[in-house]
Amino acid sequence: MIEKVNPGHPDKVADRIAGAIVDLAYRAEKNPKIAVEVLIGHGRCHAIIETTAQMNEADICSAVARITGNVETDIVIVPQDAHLSDNQADGVRCGDNGIFKGMPLTAEQKELSQIAHKIYEKYPADGKYILDGIRLIICQSNADSEELKNTYPGAEVNPLGDWTGGTDVDTGATNRKLGSDMADSVTGGGLHGKDLSKADVSVNIYAFLKAQETGYPVELCCAIGDDTVDGIPYEEVVAIARDFIRDMGGFEKFAEWGLY
Questions:
Q1: For the CA atoms of the chain, what is the radius of gyration?
Q2: Would you say residue 246 lies in a domain?
Q3: Which residues of 57-70 are buried (b: 16+ CB within 10 A; e: fewer)?
Q4: Residue 1 burial by CB count (10 A; 0-12/13-18/19+): exposed, middle or buried?
Q5: The pTM is what?
Q6: In whole angstroms, what is the distance from residue 127 CA to residue 164 CA?
Q7: Which H or E run contains 75?
Q8: Does 143 map to a domain?
Q9: Angle, helix 10-28 to helix 57-68, in steps of 10 degrees
Q10: What is the domain count for the chain?
Q11: For 209-241, what is each residue's pLDDT tens digit?
């Protein structure tokens, strides 16, 4: 059983905005420290940004408008706590405590991800999808329901009828769709709105990739300040995650679908 939501879902819009802000921080600094929380809905976007980077509010507002249209913005930018920043002063070290799990994707999870991507290519609007054995549930806004029923015979398509979604209908918040982003690898830490020193980003990506490579579950834990994780330097974990984010096209692109 698995659920996916697409990049038009309000929670994913919030994740994408947070990712775009992290991308801006990486353009300002090679290794910025940043944590972003976004709440969006009904014509307003609130963002709280803790960072070492010099951020231009106009650039942030431009990214918000590009992703979600013309909305009122409330942007708060504050320095990251000095103790957290100093954690990295003598090299790349784990930026937080955490437990992490990487799980190999199932055939069902891969299938639903492919379905979600394909539908979103045709209907780039708010949508959510569930696959539970043979039961496929498609809730896609701004779509031709009959066409979807013909494309996916037997699927339950928009059971309550056609609908219009998005941030004018619903609110979105950062890291609220971890099940969609991580499948069975969900633990406590969210993927989005953070720099690569944060274990929630780098160790989650590392554990997920290792599980796909080996075909076995991966369980890890780390403490703030650790210089090794899973027997390798934390710097290597960060480098693996950096390559993954780069291959995805940046933090904003990563936020569209999560890990798969």
A1: 19
A2: no
A3: eeebbebbeebbee
A4: exposed
A5: 0.96
A6: 10
A7: strand 72-79
A8: yes
A9: 150
A10: 1
A11: 999 999 999 999 999 989 999 999 999 999 999
Pairing of strands 44-51, 34-41: antiparallel
What is the extent of the structural domain holding 143? 107-167
213 domain residue, yes or no? no
Residues 56, 62, 66, CA angle at the centre, nearest 5°?
Answer: 150
Residue 241: name the closest of 189, 172, 174 by CA: 189
Whether residue 121 is contained in a domain is answered as yes
Contacts for 36-39: CB closer than 8 Å, 24+ residues apart: 36/174, 36/193, 36/194, 37/173, 37/174, 37/193, 38/14, 38/172, 38/173, 38/174, 38/193, 39/14, 39/171, 39/172, 39/173, 39/174
The CA distance from 14 to 20, in Å, is: 10
Element (H, E) at 208: helix 199-214
Residue 168 near residue 142 (C-beta atoms within 8 A): no
Residue 29: Cβ-neighbour burial (10 angstroms; 0-12, 13-18, 19+)? middle
Question: What is the number of other CB atoms lying within 10 angstroms of the CB of residue 72?
Answer: 11
Q: Could you identify the residue written with the tokens 């291959």?
A: 247
Mean pLDDT, 10 residues at a time, the chain of 260 residues: 97 98 97 96 98 96 97 96 72 89 98 98 98 96 97 97 95 97 94 96 98 98 94 97 98 98
Whole-number average pLDDT of the chain: 96
Sign of the CA dihedral with 221 first, then 222, 228, and 234 last = positive
